[in-house]
Amino acid sequence: MTGTDGATMPLVDLTEIPLTEVSLLASPVLAACLERLLAETAAEGPGPAARFDSAV
Amino acid sequence: MTGAGTGAARPVAPPTELRCTTEWPERGLDVEAERRRGWRPAPMRQVVLKLVGPCNLACDYCYVYEGADLSWRERPAVASADVVRAVARRVGEHALTHALPEVEVVLHGGEPLLVGPDALAVVLRTLREGTPPQVALRLGVQTNGILLTDRMLAVLADFDVRVGVSLDGGPAENDRHRLRRNGRGSYSSVERGLHRLTAPRYRPLYAGLLATVDPRHDPVTVYEALLAFEPPSVDFLLPHRTWGWTPTGFPGSGAGSTPYGDWLVAVFDRWFDASRRETDVRLFDDVIHLLLGGAARSGQVGLSPAAFVVVDTDGSLQQVDALKVVAPGAPETGLNVFDHALDDVCAHPTVVARQIGLTALADECRRCRLVQVCGGVHYTHRHRPGRGFRNPSVYCHDLQVLIDHVVRRLTPR
Question: What is the ipTM of this complex?
Answer without folding.
Answer: 0.79
